[in-house]
Flagellar motor switch protein FliM
Amino acid sequence: MVDVLSQNEIDALLAALSSGEMDAEELKKEDTQKKVRSYDFKRATRFSKDHIRSLTRIHENFARYLTTYFSAQLRTFVQISVVDVEQLPYDEFIRSIPKMTILNIFEAEPLEGRMVLEVHPNVAYAMLDRLLGGQGTAPSKMNALTEIEMTIMERIFSRAFESLQEAWKTIIDLSPRLEALETNPQFMQIVSPNETIALISLSTKIGDTTGMINLCIPHVVIEPIMPKLSVHHWFVSQKKSRSPEEVEMLEQRVNRAQLPIAVELGESTISIFEFLNLSQGDVITLNKPVGEGLSVKVGNKIKFIGSPGSIKDRIAVQVDEIVSEGVEEEND
């Protein structure tokens, strides 16, 4: 971003140039010198800004689905929202989470590889307390989970992955499946330490308890579908397949639609004076010979050529020719 100087800074700069404290030629040389930008290969940029925006949109939907799901399961006020989407090395993610936390390791076919949904102990224990009949408050001291508590946690988070499946439906049909639930980050090595991951941070509030839920998606896992995360793919409308019943109903409605049909005997041009002096018995000469077919219009398009006649004392027209698609009136 270009720095904008204030008026005082501009005045000070002009005064320094006038007094000789600064040399204009030296400033020009500094501008022409090559600027070197440091690059950390351990923090390789694998996700473009376009990808980050798409991931943000997807997981904003995920947050809304999770809010609905947990509110129904816990029967209390739950609020979940996306606060940040960033890319960083997997090792940095592991070092940033607590030593005692809830790690839901899962796969999502057809993607290959494992991902992690990390739930802060405050949030996890508040959920557990609520499910077991408490007020939904986190204990002051975090103890290791018992087998019963682990089973409850696995059950509630296994169903939470249905929200992830729904959020990704516009991109790919996923089938998330919980593989394991860990509490120690040191025992979880799903990718190499330097592998770039997308970290989606969700701010979570359950009653008066707040904490974070972090979704870790390694780049190597979603690399095959990266082109689908572009803005172009996001906004292109997908063709939705219709059931046979919907197709039949649509055909019936189209068949019942009414169309205006008009038959033109011909055209003629007269002056306003002639028009004002027309009287009964006058004859207007048309531009078509008697033996030439008549134009049959559907709407304002010529679709058929026909011959005039009558049926049961009613004026009628017989279709003699179907006009090819795209043919317009000669006068258009």
User: Anything to note?
Assistant: Strands lie at 78-89, 102-109, 114-119, 175-182, 196-206, 209-218, 261-264, 294-298, 301-311, 314-322. The chain has ten helices and ten strands.
